[in-house]
Amino acid sequence: MNQPAPTPSGVFDHAHEQVVHCHDETSGLKAIIGLYSTALGPGLGGTRFHPYATEAEALTDVLALSRGMAYKNALAGLDLGGGKAVIIGDPRRDKSEALLRAYGRFVESLAGRYYTACDVGTFSPDMDVIARETSYVTGRTVEHGGAGDSSVLTAFGVYQGMRASAAHLWGSPDLAGRRVGVAGVGKVGKHLVDHLVEEDATVVVTDVDATALDAVTSRHPGVRVVASTDALVDETLDVYAPCALGNALTDDVVARLSATVVCGGANNQLAHDGVAKLLTERGITYAPDYCVNAGGVIQVSDELDPRGFDFERAKARATGIFDSTLAVLERAAADGLTTAEAADRETEQRIRTIGRLGQVHLPRR
User: Glutamate/phenylalanine/leucine/valine/L-tryptophan dehydrogenase C-terminal domain location, by residue (predicted)?
Assistant: First the structure.
């Protein structure tokens, strides 16, 4: 087993099994693959293509994201560990067939310890290109036998988590008439808005991408747009749904929120561990991000079923996010924990009882 990955400060305080730095000079690829744990099975997690300012910033992100995937997969009841990858660059400028195929060769070099999929900046057609170099790919296009866009069930799972939060707090999962603010209407947020509008919730949105906003308001003219995330936080809301990048919940945001439920699709929403306590102290029910946004990984993991991908089977499993979210919220209330602590305990209990303790996943020969 490799040593755990060093933080940018050089201190080994992450318990990652393996971290791989990938560089291909010809294509310009610079990427990092992080494997947090394979105790439950091979690590599964998407590839994020993002213009990180420094390699240290990319490393920090991949360490946090791969740990989050281990917890997400475990809490979702999947026999999969946690991994993640980041490609350093601007996907609009730097993405190419050569770069994606070079990245695929690095994935292949891990011999099945890591399965990749889509994330911010990567899409199902990109997975088809990567699959030309490795078989350890999920989230491929439907035309190539894959699950297609995993954001469909990611949003569905967040919607189920929101319904569970409403049932826990207000006694009914019904969201009709509730004011919901969605920060980020890209891959996941746009589908979440569809569910909310269908249930007659009042929806307010924001996004840095005007095209994404135009697409949502064209489909749903009753959705209101505000200029920024700060403006959305200051709205009078029942539910706040962060669906963009991480660290959305800071001390300042929590102090200003009027919403009594936070439930969104973004990963790593808490800016630091103490934010969970601040949310509890303010009486805000926080549905832990890795609990509610597991629909996407449920969707792409279904591709690994020997019978082939079945969307309805995956959707039925994602419906279970309602129950898993409710269990976390009820455990937090019963045991006097923050919901983040309750989710971690549920997850760690499964890894202890089901996982192969002290072992790592090795591909079958």
Answer: 148-358
**84 is known as an active-site residue:** yes
Query: Tell me, what amino acid is at 147?
Result: A
Count of domains observed in the chain = 2
Amino acid letter, 261? V
Identify which has the larger pLDDT, 360 or 182.
182
pLDDT digits (tens, 9 = 90+) for 141-175: 999 989 888 889 999 999 999 999 999 999 999 99
Parallel, antiparallel or unpaired: strands 43-44 and 81-88: parallel
Continuous segment of H or E residues that includes residue 98: helix 97-109
Domain assignment of residue 61, given as a range: 18-144
pTM given for the model: 0.85
Give the rounded distance of the alpha carbon of 167 from its chain centre: 23
Other CB atoms within 10 Å distance of the CB of residue 152:
21
Residue where one domain finishes, among candidates 103, 128, 144: 144
**Residue 238 sits in the same domain as residue 129:** no
Please check whether residue 214 lies inside any domain of the structure: yes
